[in-house]
Write a structure and sequence with these properties.
The protein is of the alpha/beta class. It is built from 19 helices and 18 strands. Strands 3-4-2-5-6-1-7 form a 7-stranded parallel β-sheet, with helices on both faces. α3 packs across α4 and α6 packs across α8. It binds adenosine-5'-diphosphate (ADP) and magnesium ion.
């Protein structure tokens, strides 16, 4: 590694027009609402566009996708349908998120194909889309390895390789897969490594697979002011009931639109989610032992607002594609200090103020001390006894949503417009009562304002959608009806 850690983003505000980019891309970025580079983009894009290897550190939400995306697109030859760029991501959700952003960034080029190869999906359609050529492959390591072993993908002409969230990929045990994949790419490639943290194994990975990588680092303190960190002491004797009650109290106090409550164990996620539901706070547990379908349904309900609260383990929350949360709660402090940074990075994004509230019992105070020793922003955080917090009486939000599960998806050629059309055809449901529509491979989900759910169920059960009859089901409405 060479180069120095750059200072904070202050004073780095720069337009994309300072970069050697075609006018069409500058226009595209403007259309996307990207007026100025974020700090990590301002530091990464000039060397990346020159073809240098980079090892870049910046927190979640800092704009890393465009930092590598704009660069890799510039090197593509649209007329060559061979795979020229490869992005590795830790999870399916992240791969989807990255691919979506790349497609937008690529709108200034005609016919650029971005193919997602991620686990939990059937291989057949992935193989079929590869046969039509893929300029860019966005993949999770395990699944890409499968494709390489089946020789259904060829990486021999990759000129840009991106390791996104490299630290998470290593945490998830993808080190071997990554090595295997790297061995199938040309040594002449440009390698861009992005990571929220720089532990020793990342530095090691960089030294083995990168050439004179320039280190770019956006100090986490740059954004720290937009995250208000607070610690709440729950007392002397650890008591899980008290911990769950404190989470309820904080949610009632801050009344966030949505929140993720981080827990260290699967059991804790389930206990806390149940406790929240008992207090009329719609919540579900997100942990690593869910089936893919259950996980999909939970994430859909969280994103469309019908379940605003998740109690999650770190592994399960990885790759959660969520916008800035107004509040994150650490029901328990993590054992690993870097995990704390990653958790609180879920709030206070894009300049919005967010609150990171952490709960601890006296016997866990050493963790608070360790955090405060490490980071100035954390050292300045307030520590309060939970008893000082006013738990407001919960005003139930006026418009609660519920989710209907429609037993058909992309495979049945369903599009959001088809579902919207079926719901509004008879004009019995106002458009304002219909929320987000998600179409997955084999199922679709639509959020409906609670008061209209019964009508919507009736309508969809009676009608055909795209001349097909589908099974319609209301997803469990946690918080209200389940004790
Ligand atoms: P990261 O990978 O660092 O967590 P993302 O690349 O997903 O962050 O970007 C976070 C959000 O910021 C996205 O919604 C993205 O569209 C937006 N964004 C990225 N760059 C810019 C920019 N220069 N101006 C405005 N918004 C941006
Ligand atoms: Mg990212």
């Amino acid at each position: 590694m060479s180069g120095t850690s750059a200072p904070t983003g202050d004073g780095l505000a720069a337009g994309f027009d300072s970069l050697p980019l075609p006018v069409a891309q500058l226009q595209n970025l403007q259309d996307m609402g990207y007026a100025q580079m974020t700090p990590v983009q301002a530091l990464s894009l000039p060397p990346a566009l020159q073809g240098r290897d980079l090892i870049a550190q910046a927190k979640t939400g800092s704009g890393k996708t465009a930092a590598f995306g704009i660069a890799l697109l510039q090197r593509l030859n649209p007329r060559d349908f061979g795979t020229q760029a490869l992005v590795l991501c830790p999870t399916r959700e992240l791969a989807t998120q990255v691919a979506t952003q790349l497609r937008k960034l690529a709108r200034y080029l005609a016919n650029i194909k971005v193919v997602i190869l991620s686990g939990g999906q059937p291989l057949g359609p992935q193989i079929a889309s590869l046969e039509h050529g893929a300029h860019v492959v966005v993949a999770t390591p395990g699944r890409l390895r499968d494709h390489l072993q089946k020789q259904t993908v060829n990486l021999a002409r990759v000129n840009t390789l991106v390791l996104d969230e490299a630290d998470r990929m290593l945490d998830m045990g993808f080190a071997d897969d990554i090595e295997f994949i790297l061995g199938h790419t040309p040594a002449s490639r440009q390698t861009l490594l992005f990571s929220a943290t720089f532990p020793a194994d990342i530095v090691n990975l960089s030294s083995r697979y990168q050439r004179e990588a320039l280190q770019v680092s956006v100090e986490s303190t740059h954004d720290a002011h937009s995250i208000e960190q607070r610690f709440y002491c729950l007392g002397e004797t650890p008591d899980e009931e008290r911990r769950a009650a404190a989470v309820v109290k904080l949610l009632q106090h801050w009344q966030p639109e949505a929140s993720v409550v981080f827990c260290n164990t699967r059991q804790a996620t389930m206990d806390i989610a149940r406790h929240l539901r008992q207090h009329d706070l719609p919540a579900l547990a997100l942990h690593g032992e869910l089936e893919q379908r259950e996980r999909d349904q939970i994430l859909v309900q969280f994103r469309n607002g019908s379940v605003p609260f998740l109690a999650a383990t770190d592994v399960a929350a990885r790759g959660l594609d969520i916008e800035a949360l107004p509040l994150v709660i650490n029901a328990e402090l993590p054992r690993d200090l870097d995990v704390y940074t990653h958790r609180i990075g879920r709030t206070g994004r894009a300049g919005q103020q967010g609150i990171a509230a952490s709960l601890f019992f006296e016997n866990e105070r050493f963790r608070v001390d360790a955090l405060r020793e490490r980071d100035a922003a954390t050292a300045g955080a307030s520590i309060q006894a939970i008893g000082q917090v006013q738990g407001k009486s919960a005003n139930a939000p006026a418009h609660r949503m519920q989710t209907l599960d429609i037993g058909g998806g992309r495979k049945n050629k369903l599009r959001p417009g088809d579902i919207l059309g079926a719901l509004t055809a008879e004009q019995r449901i106002p458009a304002s009562a219909i929320g987000r529509i998600d179409i997955l491979e084999h199922a679709s989900y639509v959020a409906i304002a609670e008061d209209w759910v019964d009508t919507a169920l009736q309508l969809l059960e009676q009608r055909r959608i795209k001349a097909q009859k589908f099974k319609i089901r209301r997803l469990g409405s946690p918080g209200r009806r389940q004790p």
